[in-house]
Design brief:
Blueprint: H1 5-8, E1 10-15, E2 22-28, E3 33-38, E4 41-46, E5 51-60, E6 63-73, E7 82-84, E8 87-97, H2 100-115, H3 125-136, H4 146-159
Antiparallel strand pairs: 1-4, 1-8, 2-5, 3-4, 5-6, 6-8, 7-8
Length: 160
């Protein structure tokens, strides 16, 4: 049985419901396809290996009460994956946080990476894992540098 391209994609449902519910938002990532159903409903997809960031915010009475952020790698057909809300079938969570402090640190890291001119979707998966591990043990993660980025890009070319 052959695997079609559509079966290899990772899909993300971006649906903004009422102000009392979850509001998923794509923070970064290179989509391979996208379909808008309404102003409040989109379906986007990612090719295997693509890295993207999904933020989920629960709002009640106009205030954010729960905030989640996940940096996810889209998996290939046959690879194991984790189930993630709004993501089908799931993906590899490289970095995740669900407390305000952790979410804020991750948002600051993403901003600092963007300010160096690097697209966060191209950052080494190992760096995101490093950040996750550092935050887990309450340590400050190292900054991602252009030198690290160049090395990661060269390494990716060699292993392809």
């Amino acid at each position: 049985m052959s695997t079609t391209v559509a079966n290899c994609l990772t899909y993300v449902d971006l649906v903004f419901s009422s102000p009392q519910k979850h509001s998923p938002k794509l923070r970064f990532g290179r989509t391979s396809e996208g379909t808008s159903f309404t102003q409040q409903s989109r379906l986007i997809s990612f090719s295997p290996g693509a890295v993207f960031c999904l933020q989920r915010i629960t709002i009640r009475d106009g205030n954010s009460i729960v905030s989640h952020i996940d940096i996810i790698r889209a998996t290939s057909s046959g690879e194991s994956y984790q189930k993630i809300p709004f993501v089908r079938p799931g993906g590899e969570v490289l970095l995740g946080a669900n407390k305000a402090e952790g979410v804020g640190i991750i948002e600051d890291l993403i901003l600092s990476i963007e300010q160096t001119g690097i697209n966060p979707a191209e950052v080494s998966a190992n760096y995101w894992r490093h950040v996750h591990n550092r935050l887990y043990v309450k340590m400050t993660p190292r900054c991602y540098t252009k030198v690290q980025h160049k090395a990661a890009q060269l390494s990716k070319r060699v292993t392809i």
